[in-house]
Amino acid sequence: MRLLYTAFICLISISIFAQEDCINPDDIVVETYMYAYSPSNLSIDLGQTITWINTGGTHDVNGVTNSMTGEPFENPESFSIPATSGSPDDIGCIGSFTFTVPGVYSYDCSIYGHALQGMVGTITVGDPGCNDFTACNYSPDADFNDGSCVFVGDSCDDGDPNTLDDVIQENCECSGTSNPTWKCFDGTCYELDDGTGDYISLADCEEECEEIIFDPTWKCVSGECFELDDGNGEYASLADCEAECIILQSWDCILGACVDPEDGSGFYLDLSDCESECQTSSMTEQNQNQKKLLKITNLLGQKTSIQNNTTLLFIYNDGSVEKKFIIE
């Protein structure tokens, strides 16, 4: 499961006595020389032992405090071996350490300046992975947690550019919410930048947008909205029609009196203008007859405006009533 490193020293002058004194057959050997550990990065199984030998200079093994920063290594377990000198002709045995706690270890040589020259190493003990059983990627074979655990609610990337806020879902799959950027206007698709569209993709928009064509079916007539079947209206919806279909009050001068036709078709938009003009134009008639028209009704007594070819009743303030039939 691990690539086991063993020391095979080819120097003729190696001290056989030193090796027999220091190295056990199952040990993994790390050689130190000048400003290096070799190998500098190792992966081993739990319970394996590493032995450091010195083939040149004076070196130690420091797994407690970082010699360059002064900060603790915070290894799963601290370890250190005092300095020992050695040479190719007289190999020194620095010492051994058996690793029984899984995790990633860092160490260096604390002899002045050696770590700065690159004499550092790492040792991974056991199988790294996610050992939290509540995680989506839990591995029962992991000896220690390497920070790779993924949980429901974690941010992720589902690879779809048309989604937002991608997170790990309850089924441990990554997905996001739709980001509708396309909108149909009068049969044409437009892309919006604020995510307020109706469609996720251009294809989805075009598929339905061809059927959505502006069809003005509502028309305002005398202050009321009516729906037409021929598409010749003025508004696409009843709401749009009602918002603008407002009758402005207006007046007509009829027989010396100002009357509101109640359909916005009056000649005067201001009552005072109507009364001023109407009184002036009918001064002679008013001098002869001071009675004032109150209202006009049909034979059923319903209030109405002047209509041609219809019998109308003109009711005045003096109680008199005139029946008139105006021929077109």
3D structure, described in words:
- This protein has 328 residues and is mostly beta strands.
- Among the domains are: 16-127, Cupredoxins -  blue copper proteins (Immunoglobulin-like); 215-246, no CATH class; 252-325, no CATH class.
- The chain is built from five helices and 22 strands.
- The chain has helices at 16-22, 202-209, 238-244, 271-281, 283-288, and strands at residues 28-33, 36-38, 41-44, 49-54, 57-62, 80-86, 92-98, 103-108, 120-125, 128-129, 144-145, 163-168, 174-178, 182-185, 188-191, 218-221, 224-227, 252-254, 257-259, 293-297, 311-316, 321-325.
- The strands form nine sheets. It has a four-stranded mixed beta sheet, with helices on one face. The chain has a three-stranded mixed beta sheet with strand order 3-9-8, with no helix packed on it.
- The termini are far apart.
Features:
single chain; 328 residues; mainly beta; Immunoglobulin-like; 4-stranded mixed beta sheet; 3-stranded mixed beta sheet; 22 strands; rod-shaped
Summarize this entry quickly.
By secondary structure, this protein is mostly beta strands. It has helices spanning 16-22, 202-209, 238-244, 271-281, 283-288, and strands at residues 28-33, 36-38, 41-44, 49-54, 57-62, 80-86, 92-98, 103-108, 120-125, 128-129, 144-145, 163-168, 174-178, 182-185, 188-191, 218-221, 224-227, 252-254, 257-259, 293-297, 311-316, 321-325.
